[in-house]
Amino acid sequence: MLGYSDFHGNFYVYDTDRSVHLEHQKIQSVQFKQNSIAYMNSSGELKYYSNHQVTDLEISNPRFYLNTDHYLYYSFGYNFSLYDGKKKETLGFIQNNPYAFSDSIAAMHDYANYFFVYWKDKFVELEQHPVKYIRAGKNIVAYVDDQSFFKIFYQNEKLTIDNNPPYTVQCASSTVSYIDNYRYFKIFWSGKVYEMYNASEIYCSNDETVFRMDYNTFCDAQIVVAEDNLTPLFKTGDDIVAFIDDEERFNIFYKGISNEYYSSVPKQYDVIDNMIWWVDDNNFFHVFYDGEDYLIESYTPKKIRADKNTIVYTDNYGKLKAFFMGESLEVTSSIILDFELNNELIMYNVIPNKYEFYKLK
């Protein structure tokens, strides 16, 4: 789903094949997912739109909220809670302990500092002491326990991966990428650990400074290629990881197999869900999808958006194009002003304040 506010502040959403008017006054914020929309109205009330109807969650000015394809997470007072489209569930209590939320799994602590996950609509206790770090993917949780053991919860099983904490961790669906305590870059995928290479030095960038990491430290930001090259060292998606190896070559790990796709660090790259796009030294635009690398354009698009199975971008003339499930197509023959993408739905405008929608299929 997608939506917009007009110049009067009216808020509309595009649902199936029509625009639906939800609010008469300008909303404070909104989060769009495949089959739902969560937003705070002008009064700060949290509302949820799905199945053609609005649900008032009777929550005003939540500390935070996160809408996903499965759950809406939010905090109010001293509690973390979720809404699954039918019922609310209190997850735990706001403390100084870490927490993580993703599409179908949540990880946090209760009032007694026990650590647990909420998965498949039930609570699973993992530890009886607070953990140090947590990362969550769509169906997986990675964490460092109070003894500094690195563990993963996957498919209702708790796995001890290492007895030392990693330098950094990223999670997506069925996939965890990390640099272990001996500086080996590794990938946990579908229950198995794959060792990629050993990094001689590790640099962490927090958008303000870049610093070389010392032994037994954790990067809570982005690991980059070098002190003078802020290209991410790796990015993790669903069953897929793009990474720069120790010889600065661009590699892609996909469903248990790793291959080199470029002999140097790309100018840009990103990983969203199951899609990778990247730009080579000639400014050529590539997309990796379903195990294949596609050369899409001989230039770098001005704006690129990605979602599951989908890449949408503007060409050199300002027209809108898409790469969807392995096929390239032209979305508009007119020059557009801007666009947004959510799953398979594109919202764009050719003239100010007049929005059109295009459903990929």
How would you describe the overall organization of this protein?
The chain is built from no helices and 42 strands. It is an all-beta fold. The chain has two domains: 2-274, no CATH class; 275-361, Thrombin, subunit H (Beta Barrel). A hairpin with a 5-residue loop joins strand 1 and strand 2. The relative contact order is 0.07. The mean pLDDT is 96.
Topology, please?
Layout: E1 2-5, E2 11-15, E3 18-23, E4 29-32, E5 37-40, E6 45-50, E7 53-60, E8 64-67, E9 72-76, E10 79-83, E11 88-93, E12 100-101, E13 105-109, E14 115-119, E15 122-127, E16 133-136, E17 140-144, E18 150-154, E19 157-162, E20 168-172, E21 175-179, E22 184-189, E23 192-198, E24 203-205, E25 210-212, E26 222-226, E27 229-232, E28 234-237, E29 240-244, E30 250-254, E31 257-262, E32 268-272, E33 275-279, E34 285-289, E35 292-297, E36 304-307, E37 310-314, E38 319-324, E39 327-335, E40 338-342, E41 345-351, E42 354-359
Antiparallel strand pairs: 1-2, 2-3, 4-5, 5-6, 6-7, 8-9, 9-10, 10-11, 12-13, 13-14, 14-15, 16-17, 17-18, 18-19, 20-21, 21-22, 22-23, 24-25, 24-26, 26-27, 28-29, 29-30, 30-31, 32-33, 33-34, 34-35, 36-37, 37-38, 38-39, 40-41, 41-42
